[in-house]
Amino acid sequence: MAEVMRSSFMLMLLMIIISVIVGEKRIAAQVHHVVGDDHGWDPSSNIGAWSSGRIFRVGDKIWFAYSVAQESIAELKSKEEFDSCDTSNPIRMYTDGLDSISFDAEGTHYFTSGRPESCKKGLKFNVEVLPQPKTKEEAMMIVSTDDAVATGPTPSASTRGLPSSLWER
């Protein structure tokens, strides 16, 4: 009986060690970004404001949602093509109305409207894809510097007669 208990303990300890090692390797999760949020890829969207401050990492995915009748997306090779809205020789054209692109490597990607007139009006953005954090501490620093802060509930009319210690922290 003691030998069975010892074997079970050793197996459990081994499982915990393996879990910790595997957990160390998978630090960050894949993030899905919907370009333009609710407005999607549209000339009326402010894509520059949407992309400002966003961090894109290897493993992330971006989604383009747009009207096929009005738009398409061109992925371009260079900053020069991007700046001039030259879509004559794209890496790829996206025309399905709902397209996803996975970032498998670090680097800069250039996306513009397939319609030069929409591109010249600002329907374009470039993405700098960063590496995944190498350590758990680095990942925690990224999370702790995030501006997204949730606020707690505020007291409603139905709580006004209750002691404040019940709803304040």
Any chance you could write out the topology, listing elements then pairs?
Elements (H helix, E strand, L loop, with lengths): L1 H24 L6 E3 L12 H5 L4 E2 L3 E5 L7 E4 L2 H6 L7 E3 L3 E5 L4 E7 L2 H5 L3 E7 L5 H9 L25
Parallel strand pairs: 1-3, 2-8
Antiparallel strand pairs: 3-6, 4-5, 4-7, 7-8
Pfam family, one: Cu_bind_like
InterPro entries: Cupredoxin, Phytocyanin-like, Phytocyanin_dom
Protein name: Phytocyanin domain-containing protein
Q: How does this structure look, described?
A:
There is one protein chain. The protein is of the alpha/beta class. The protein has a domain at 32-131: Immunoglobulin-like, CATH 2.60.40. It has 5 helices and 8 strands. It has helices spanning 2-25, 47-51, 79-84, 116-120, 136-144, and strands at residues 32-34, 56-57, 61-65, 73-76, 92-94, 98-102, 107-113, 124-130. The strands form 2 sheets. Strands 2-8-7-4-5 form a 5-stranded mixed β-sheet. It has a 3-stranded mixed β-sheet with strand order 1-3-6, with no helix packed on it. The longest helix has 24 residues, at 2-25. The N and C termini lie far apart (51 Å). Mean pLDDT is 76; it is low at 4-27 and 142-169. Residues 31-131 form the Phytocyanin domain. GO terms for molecular function: electron transfer activity. Residues 146-169 are annotated as: Disordered. Keywords: Disulfide bond, Glycoprotein, Signal. Residues 1-23 form the signal peptide.
